[in-house]
Protein: L-amino acid N-acyltransferase YncA
Organism: Streptomyces achromogenes
Amino acid sequence: MNPEHAKGILTIYRLGIDEGNATFRDHRPHLAEFDAAKLPRHRFVALDDSGEVLGWIAAAPVSDRCVHAVVVEHSVYVHPAARGRRIGGALLRRLITSTEAAGVWTIQCGVFPGNTASLALHARAGFRVVGTGERVGRHHGVWRDVVLIERRSPAI
Ligand SMILES: CC(C)(COP(=O)(O)OP(=O)(O)OC[C@H]1O[C@@H](n2cnc3c(N)ncnc32)[C@H](O)[C@@H]1OP(=O)(O)O)[C@@H](O)C(=O)NCCC(=O)NCCS
């Protein structure tokens, strides 16, 4: 992930937010905020032949109490026009490789129950459902449950 990918990343992020099934977030993402939140060594993009961003993945520490992040939460977004081509799966594998190499033992993520694409993607990559939080937050005026999923590394 390089500075020239920022525009494509933020566009895909915004498209995913606007669809309303990926995140509680409802304001436009900003690069500075993204940059401050995401761990530099665990952020990746998928590019087409001309260098356009098709999707991205990035992890953030779940807690600021540990200097060295050993449990992270991630976000993965693929451009609507590029979905179903296993780009999300490839990004997830890349993140699993980088985090395991860095000693991270758990990757976790909260998913809306209706986000079948994300639940299928993560199940394929070895994530398990920890449980469902009920009415975790309001999203556009509606209380929404969140499925917590995790992948505990078998290698660490
Ligand atoms: C979730 C998302 C990243 C998946 O990306 P993708 O590149 O389309 O996923 P892939 O093509 O790699 O699919 C991975 C697996 O999930 C399955 N899958 C993908 N979309 C699916 C859907 N809509 N319904 C059922 N299964 C689906 C695929 O069958 C695939 O399994 P396979 O390799 O055995 O065929 C993409 O839909 C997206 O960006 N959504 C909006 C943002 C979002 O919700 N992010 C997750 C927040 S928790």
Notes: Residues 87-101 form the longest helix (15 residues). Helices lie at 6-19, 31-37, 87-101, 116-124. The longest strand covers residues 128-139. The chain has one domain: 3-152.
